[in-house]
Write a structure and sequence with these properties.
1 helix; 4 strands
C-alpha cells in the first residue's frame, strides 16, 4: 500500500535548524497551511492538482527565454498546443 506522503529533509538551501517537507504523490503538491514555521513539514498538506490548465500552461515557455511575447515552444512538454492559448494584457498595446 502506497503512503499518502513521504517526509523529505535537508537540502543545500535549508537553514541550520533544518527544513522538512512532505513529498506528495503526483499530481498533488505540498501546500503551505498559511501559518507557522515554513521550515516544518507539519505546516504543509498534500493537495492541489499539478495537472490543471493554469499550472500546465504556465510552464510552457517562449522559444527564446528572453522574449516576452515570443512564440510558445511546446516541444518536449507533452502539452497539447491547442490547450494553452496566450492571452495578451490590454496594457501591452500601450
Amino acid at each position: 500500500m502506497a503512503p499518502d506522503s513521504l517526509l523529505a529533509a535537508g537540502g543545500s538551501a535549508a537553514p541550520p535548524s533544518g527544513r522538512t517537507r512532505p513529498l506528495c504523490p503526483y499530481p498533488k503538491t505540498a501546500i503551505y497551511k498559511g501559518t507557522g514555521d515554513i521550515n516544518g513539514a507539519a505546516k504543509f498538506v498534500c493537495g492541489g492538482n499539478l495537472e490543471t490548465h493554469a499550472t500546465v500552461c504556465a510552464d510552457v515557455l517562449v522559444k527564446y527565454k528572453h522574449e516576452v511575447h515570443g512564440e510558445l515552444d511546446y516541444r518536449g512538454t507533452g502539452v497539447n498546443p491547442g490547450l494553452c492559448e496566450r492571452v495578451e494584457d490590454d496594457d501591452d498595446s500601450k
